[in-house]
From TrEMBL:
Family (UniProt): Belongs to the TO family.
The keyword ATP-binding is assigned to this record: no
One Pfam family in the UniProt entry: JHBP
Protein name, entry field: Uncharacterized protein
UniProt KW Signal keyword: yes
The entry's keywords: Biological rhythms, Signal
GO biological process: one example: circadian rhythm
Residues of the signal peptide: 1-21
Superkingdom to which the source organism belongs: Eukaryota
Species this protein is from: Ceutorhynchus assimilis (cabbage seed weevil)
GO cellular component: extracellular space
Length: 245
């Protein structure tokens, strides 16, 4: 009798433990694999992540998006200009709007189209070369506001097996970013020569999109790695079958 009670209790406990182990945190909304509206479900699930992305979830290594801090530094050389951008902080990412989503659970390809109305970016830059025919050399702080940002992220997933469970991981993330417009203010160029500096800021602002397109590969690369790390922090924490039951 006592033994049966023990069996009953332990199976209850094991059952409880198992359920607890399977529990997903509140911020994850799962989408059934055969949901006829898988796309709609996944968009809602991303939308519901917004408040958590805003603050970050340290227990799951999900960083805060406000500001979005990129710790890497990025060096690029384009059109005779060397540029190193470091210590980038961006504000406004959490105002994202998911415009579209394409999902293929067989090939594990995900394409997300996201709009962000406005981003304010602060960074440290080092420039050496010519920008729009003006010789430029120096370093300092850079502030830029970009408006009407639209991004398309292509995520290639892969299933890895760990401890007998299948986990999704994004092995490759490609990002294309377009911006509508904006302005930039660079400080400290030309050893503080205010006349040359205001001239350069003027030229750059009148040709903001050209200026930004020079920087875009750098921006895309850094954002792609943020996308990949954040995405992986979320999907690698839970077995695939749990995320897509
Ligand atoms: C899928 O979503 C569309 C548009 O939101 C809706 O019209 C349709 O009824 C949904 N279908 C199902 C099966 O939920
Ligand atoms: C990085 O940027 C932040 C915010 O703009 C600033 O507070 C910090 O001092 C910078 N750090 C370095 C090492 O430049
Ligand atoms: C896999 O199992 C090992 C040993 O039991 C454990 O240390 C590790 O955290 C497990 N990994 C995952 C992803 O659950
Ligand atoms: C960016 O926008 C903020 C207000 O949102 C403003 O204070 C700042 O001067 C702007 N910077 C540039 C470079 O336009």
């Amino acid at each position: 009798m006592a033994f049966r009670k023990f069996l009953f209790l332990s199976s209850l406990l094991i059952g409880l433990v198992r359920v607890r182990g399977k529990e997903l945190p509140d911020f994850i909304r799962t989408c059934a694999r055969d949901d006829p509206n898988l796309t709609t479900c996944m968009i809602s699930s991303v939308e519901e992540l917004r408040p958590y992305l805003l603050k970050g979830v340290p227990e799951y290594n999900i960083p805060s998006l406000e500001p979005l801090v990129m710790t890497d530094f990025f060096a690029d050389e384009a059109a005779g200009m060397k540029i190193v951008v470091s210590n980038v902080s961006a504000w406004g990412c959490s105002d994202f709007f998911v415009r579209g989503l394409e999902t293929n659970l067989d090939t594990l390809q995900f394409i997300v189209d996201v709009d962000i109305p406005k981003l304010r970016i602060e960074a440290h830059y080092h420039l050496d070369g010519k920008l729009l025919l003006v010789p430029v050399k120096g370093d300092g702080n850079l502030e830029t506001n970009v408006t009407d940002v639209s991004a398309r992220a292509e995520l290639q997933g892969e299933i890895i097996e760990q401890n007998g469970s299948k986990f999704l991981t994004y092995s490759q993330v490609k990002l294309r970013v377009h911006v509508g417009g904006g302005s930039v203010r660079m400080e400290n160029l030309f050893n503080g020569d205010k006349v040359l500096l205001s001239m350069l800021n003027d030229v750059v602002n009148r040709n903001f999109k050209v200026f930004l397109s020079e920087l875009m590969p750098v921006i895309e690369k850094s954002l792609a790695s943020v996308f990949q790390n954040t995405g992986n922090a979320i999907v690698e924490a839970f077995p695939f079958d749990q995320l897509f039951p």
